[in-house]
Amino acid sequence: MTSRASLLVVALFFYVFEEHSVSCQPGDSLYYKTARQCSNETGAESVDDDLLDEILNVECNWRLQSLGKVSDDPNALVRTFLSPAHRRSAAVLRAWMEDAGLRVWMDQLGNVRGRIEGSMPGTRAIVMGSHFDTVVDAGKWDGALGVVVAIQAVKALMSSGVPPLKPIEVVAFSDEEGVRFQSTFLGSRGISGIFTEDLLENRDQKGFTLSEVLKSAGLPGDMESIRRVAMKKDEVEAYVEFHIEQGPQLERLGVPLGPVAAIAGQTRLQVIISGDQGHAGTVPMLGRRDSVAAAAEMIVMIERRCGGGNHTLSQHIDPEEMLVCTVGEVRVWPGASNVISGNTNITIDIRARRSEVRLSAVDDVMASITEQCARRMMRCDIIRKHDAEAVESDPNLTQQLVAAATTSMNILRQRKESSKHGAGDEGGGAEASEEAEGPESPVLVSGAGHDAMAMAHLTNVAMVFVRCHGGFSHSPLEHVEPEDVHAAAHALYQFLKNANRA
Ligand SMILES: *[C@@H]1O[C@H](CO)[C@@H](O)[C@H](O)[C@H]1NC(C)=O
Ligand SMILES: *[C@@H]1O[C@H](CO)[C@@H](O)[C@H](O)[C@H]1NC(C)=O
Ligand SMILES: *[C@@H]1O[C@H](CO)[C@@H](O)[C@H](O)[C@H]1NC(C)=O
Ligand SMILES: *[C@@H]1O[C@H](CO)[C@@H](O)[C@H](O)[C@H]1NC(C)=O
Ligand SMILES: [Zn+2]
């Protein structure tokens, strides 16, 4: 009886002691105790495993869930550029960045930025981040994952009590999706110095210009101030971005993280097909100029050219080139069941990893359209709307990310195996970490544009994709397993640790 009671007292003592000295339990305020309060008072260089788990796993996932609730619409996640929810989320990010030990400010384009100077003079900054705006009815991880993971990685690094050798800058980009102004990468264009003055005159749906919207948010809203947002090339060493894959490949491969070899280039065309409008019953087939039939023939030709329309891959298409062609918009005039349509407009979106591959597909598609229209004796105008060059990741930087991710996988697997608790769900993680050591050279190609595309104008870039469920994104069905978020945060932390060792 007595011995049992004393055992209980001892156990209780350890429990209480643990609670007060090292554990950082989630509270219901915006953030937990600061990293320093949580870390070992002795300032030992190695960070406690439990603390790391708290920062890179528990708090990281909890913060992503919290950020996912900051929305302009109570029933769907919407956070467009400088909306009320967008500004609230900026305040939340500021607090989290400060908590991680960063010096924080909002720049003249609404980007939230946090910086730590390096202890070694003359070194250039490692910039990390992603965007915090969303599409309408978005998922919680698109953009937010890359921002929160970067903040947590810095917090973990700072918990060791040793300041980094090189400056570190975390950026939460204010606009990537471009929903409000039908633009792309407003935030990262500013930072990489490729923001053009005409963008300030873009109008949102209510008719306000970007310049006016910036001013109403208390920012100067002129080109002179936006020029000051840009970082200088000789002050930046690299830009690193973690982002959800938004595709199904990592899930198929059974790995949580995958380095991105390149971001696909993109060409957008519009075709205006003009035929003869007529009566569906009285005009004979011979001699019709039917714009819908012409469009249909083009659409099938475009799909075939890029290897689609067939579930067996045709031999001349290399899957690694990620050549994809899409007709996403078809507009028919007048669009009535008893009328031969006089005018049909289609949009064509062609993307590929390498510019040669994309441009050759664009040439073939344009030649085919011209040929088909000549045969049908119809007028077709092809308008080239947009061309963006592909961006290759820096191989060296990518290699460093792969090495960091591999180390992280091994650490997380070992920790999982050594912990006797939760033996039931060992399978997934252990499997994944073994496979993560497999392919050394990255093969993923991003079909979507990212802030890294703009940042490539400033510095070397590299990206890591994080596995998501079913490839869903830009949808409430978007989901990333907490374990994969942990893997991402740990890999970025490991990358920072390695970068500051050299
Ligand atoms: C704190 O640091 C001391 C000295 O390095 C070490 O012995 C101790 O295990 C550390 N405690 C924790 C909880 O990490
Ligand atoms: C589908 O692909 C197979 C194999 O490459 C090919 O033989 C067949 O002709 C293709 N069918 C179409 C409709 O493109
Ligand atoms: C097709 O585009 C032309 C030029 O922009 C426009 O005048 C026409 O109304 C469009 N047709 C349809 C059906 O949207
Ligand atoms: C790769 O990165 C390392 C570490 O930053 C650097 O020492 C090395 O010179 C780089 N190599 C190339 C080819 O850029
Ligand atoms: Zn995104």
Automatic annotation (TrEMBL):
Residues 414-446 are annotated as: Disordered. Its cofactor is Mn(2+). It holds the Pfam family Peptidase_M20. The keyword Hydrolase applies. It comes from the Eukaryota. GO terms for molecular function: hydrolase activity, acting on carbon-nitrogen (but not peptide) bonds, in linear amidines; metal ion binding. GO terms for biological process: purine nucleobase metabolic process. This is Allantoate deiminase. It comes from Cymbomonas tetramitiformis.
